[in-house]
Fold:
Amino acid sequence: MAIEEIYQLYLQHPVISTDTRKIAPGSLFFALKGDKFDANTFATQALEAGAAYAIIDDAVYRLSDQYILVDDVLGTLQDLARYHRKQLQIPVIGLTGTNGKTTTKELINAVLSQQFNTLSTQGNLNNHIGVPLTILSINNTHQMAVIEMGANHQKEIGLLCTIAQPTHGLITNVGKAHLEGFGGVEGVKKGKGELYDYLKATNGAAFVNGNSSDLMRMQQDRNMENVIFYGKDYVLNTIKGDLTGNAPFLSLRWSIGNSEEQYEVSTQLTGEYNLDNVLAAICMGHYFKLSAQQINAGISGYQPKNNRSQIVKTATNTLICDYYNANPSSMVVAIDNLDKMQAEHKVMILGDMFEMGPEAAAEHEAVLKIALNVPADEHIFVGREFYLQQGNYPATFYATAEEAMAGLQSKPVTNATVLIKGSRGMALERLVAFL
Structure:
C-alpha cells in the first residue's frame, strides 16, 4: 500500500500504537521488530484489543484487510511521519546536544507555551522510533513543536532531521558521550553537527551559544548565515545573562542585545551548568516575540523532573538527583556545581558511565581525580569501572548498586547535601531510600 493511502487511514485514525499492552481504541498498530521480539506475531492481539488496522511486514500474519502489508514497518512509520510533517505549516524546533537536551527542551516548551499551543517530545521518545511517533502526534490545534533528537552514532541526527524537518534548531553543547558509537569527541561534533548541516541546507535558523568555542567553530565552518546567538557576554549575543544566585536554585539577570534594561528571574533548577539552557529558552522566547513577562513566567514555572538536576529533601538529607544519565562532560559540571554550593556537609555518590568504549578506564579515572579534588565528607563510587580504581585512591568503592545500598544502610549518611550522579543503567535511584 502506498504511503499516501496509509496517510488517509492515519487521518481517519490519528493515533499510533506500538505496544499491545497500551492499545488505543481505533488506533493504527505498527508491528515493529526489536532485538528480542517481532510484533508481527502480536498483530491479531492488537486488533482484538481495539486497533483499527495493523501495519505488518510479514505476509504470514495477514489474515484480512485489517492487516496492511508493507515492506518494512519501521521504514513505513518514518515515511508516514515525513509525509505528515510536509502537511504541517508550523515552526518545528529541532534540538540535540551531549548534555542538557531534555532540560532545554522542557524550558523552551515552558516558555513558548505561554503564548502558543506547543507540542514537545515526551519522555525519551527522541530516537528513530520516538521522533516519528512525536511528529505523528502533532494535530491541527498545535502551533509549534519542540522535537528532541538523541543519537549515539553518526548519521542518526541526519536521519531524524529528514523526519522532523526542523525550521529552527539548537545544539546545547558537544562533549564526551557515546564515544564508543561516535568514535571519539570529533565524531560527536560531526554527528551533532548534522543538525547544522540540515539547517544550512534548508535555510533554517540556528540558535548558537556564543560563548561555546566548539559550537561557534561548528557554525563558522559551515558558513551559516541564519544564526541567533545567546550566552553570557559575547558581543553578538541577542540574549545575554548571568547568574545572581545558586543556593541551591538558580536565579539570573538577563537582557536583550545591548539594552540597559535588565530582567530578573528565579528558577526551580539547580546547577550552574543550567544557565546556558535557561538562556537558550529565553532566546527562543524572544525570537518568537514573547514578552519578557511571558518568558519569565515560563522559566520560573518550570519544575524539573525525571531525575535531572532535581532537588529532593528526605528526612535527613538534601539530595541532588541527577542520575538519569551521565558522561564525562556532565559529571565534571555536576561535581563543579556541588563544589560551589553552600553546604556544611557534602557527600558525592558517582556511578559508572556507560558507552565509553576503549576510553572507559581513562575517563573514569579522570572523573575520579576531579571528584577527589573537591572537598566532601565522603566520596562514594559505584560500579565496575570505578571499582577497578579502588586500590589507587582514598575513597569508598562499591562494585554494584546493591553493595552501595548495603553500605549506606550500615553506615548512614545524615545531614548532608548529596550529589547522586550516574548512567541510567546503574539505576542509582535505588539509593534514595537509604538516604
In short: The chain has a mean pLDDT of 92. The chain is about 35% helix and 20% strand. The chain has three domains: 3-71, 88-301, 310-434.
